[in-house]
Amino acid sequence: MSETEQSCGSCSSKQQGGGANQALQDQLIASTLDKIKYKLFVMSGKGGVGKSSVAVNLAAGLAQLGYKVGLMDVDIHGPSVPHLLGLKGQLDIERGRLLQPKRFNDNLGVVSMQSLLQDDNQAILWRGPMKTSAIRQFISDVQWGELDFLVIDSPPGTGDEPMTVLRTIPDALSVVVTTPQQVSLTDVRKALNFLQHAKANILGLVENMSGLVCPHCSQEIDLFAKGGGRELAESQHVPFLGEVPLDPASVVAGDLGTPVVLMDEDLPSKRAFQRLSATVAEAAQNSLEAVSVQGQ
Known about the structure:
globular; Rossmann fold; two-stranded antiparallel ribbon; 22% strand; single chain; 44% helix
């Protein structure tokens, strides 16, 4: 049996310790979430749409605006957030058990499965219950502190991880990422249907890779068409949050471990992510106000 499988078995045994442990963890989760104003759940219907890049740049953009931000990467099998932010090493433990988020800067802290592994190439051989347990621990066992935003990067699709996030954080605001081409839009319809069945709060839809910015003349080319995300949002009566072009600079920024929204150069993708961050912040605030009015 591999070391990972042994760890899984050990954690599973602890989870069987009874309802008291579950109740205690529920209390810790509630206490943690009470200190976070807005929870943004970034998801997509399929892979390859740049969801993690959107999540990272959204979190960095919000932090750049002066908000206190946490970024929680719940992609257990393929975490990419630490690489996109240039973060290395494992998480620190304080007060005997609480994990400390990795600090990207003063306003942005990050937790990812990648930061819990001793070997970056180690495979995670976990099924549903273990993934559910890990995601809950990312909240209950992490000292997030007082935050304005917690951005949650989820793997694509509608499997265990998205379901766990929505059950654990029922007031999460979902940000759905798509690309303009039809195959992505078809999967996004399924994702929206999933969110509606789960009675989730849908903040809006983002169209990524919305045209290609030529690295030579800086003109925009409709490589994957354009506008499909906006049209889908309108047809589904979902707010459209913005569009981000496919910019070669974003690839370079990801390899450098610096979000393109924080690059010094004036780039089309940088401006797009800055607009998206401001739009999402305003939409989240308006969403909370709407809920407050309805509750009166």
